[in-house]
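S1.2 Input.
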Amino acid sequence: MKNHKNKTKIDLKNQPILHTFNQYEIKLNYHLNIINIQIQNNYKFYESNFTLEHLHLHKLLISYITIDEIVEFINCLIVQKNIKIVENKNHLKLILISTLSNHSNVELILNKISILSNEVIEKLIIDIKNIKDENENLKKKIKSIEEKNKQNVEIIERDNNKINEIEKKIQKLEERLHKKNKIIQLKQSNLQKINSIEPHKSFINKVSTFPSGNIISVSADKSIKIYDIHLNELQNIKNAHDNSIAYVEIKDENNFITCSSDKSIKFWIKKENKFQINKIINNAHDDKIIKVIYCSNGNLISCSYDNTIKIWKENIYNNYEIIKILVHSKWINSILFLEDKNILISSGEDGTKLWNFDNINNKNYLIYFKDTFSGWHGGICRLDEDRIIVQGNNINLLKVISLLEKIIIKVINIPFLCFGICLIEDKGIFIVGGKSKDIKIYRNDNYECIQTIQNAHNDNILGFLELNDGTIISYSADKTIKVWSF
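S1.3 Output.
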């Protein structure tokens, strides 16, 4: 075997070494100084990578100085066909160890673990570091771009918010200007009477209007009268109740509901162009019934001088049955149902209560304003989505209540007990009448009184109604209905 050392060396400088004999292959990576041995035997594949430095370090083939000589030596061993191949998974030191002891019977032990030189490892470390550095630089660039994009988005959002704020301010200014123009127009053209009728023999408790524009009035004289939009009488229902009729509630063009001091609630239906009784709830309360409300879900709400509010539901037999009773300590003059908020407002001699209709409980009202009460069923009015207005505990006060904050936000001085308040939303005003012959008109934003109509009626004014054409109706204890226009 010593002769192998003196054999002619294979030229490896200009081409990769590849020696194949049957199923044996020996490859040399000249630039990395690594020997790769691949042996396939009995359908098994063995491979090992090792360096000259490794062989010398472990005293393997130490007599061979260059990797070329080692390759040449291994080639000679293979040619002799006396090589025994054994797979080793434990320790690299066993690689080619038998070549030092027995040249006639070489045992080639292969390990699957690749061994790289320090130079290669260092190069790989440098490459990995460079790749990592490049990756970090890319991350920084991406982050920088993202931050710039984020800043741009924030700038755009900030600019959009500014634009929205400016547009809101412009809208508010336009609304204020619109309201001021309306107020100027109102001041220049005051509310003036254009018509007057005296259809009843006693004071008129309520006037309402059908969707078509036809008008209906109820009176203490027990009668119901229906008119066209010009107040020409269409129908006179005498003795519609056994006592004073307090209120009329329009259900639709062909149906309305009345309530009375006779403790009954009556349902009226139009047949052959005339209204007649369709249904009656007798003894609905224990005292005078002041107001009844028809809800969109078909329920009824009624209030009475018996200190109760009753909620009614129609059963399968088309009769109404009580499903809830709410109580005040004194008589109740008015109720107002805000369906969009599901809040019921009730007001009487003991004050005003706000009830949550989502969870009605007699002892669990939202808020109780003891120093407020309505003088009559028209004494509560909604000014907008948040505000309602009701009489204060003094006859010369109105109190504006915030539904959102549930507090009194404004007190308005008036010279009389209020019986009726009517919002004229299109003109930004509300009209007030009561225990007086005068009508007062207030702005809806700052509550400034912009007009007083003295001696508008000859007795107490009980309420108002805005018609479809923008004219205003007032009705009074003097038995008259008066029509007004700006």
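S1.4 Remarks. Helices lie at 52-57, 67-80, 118-188.
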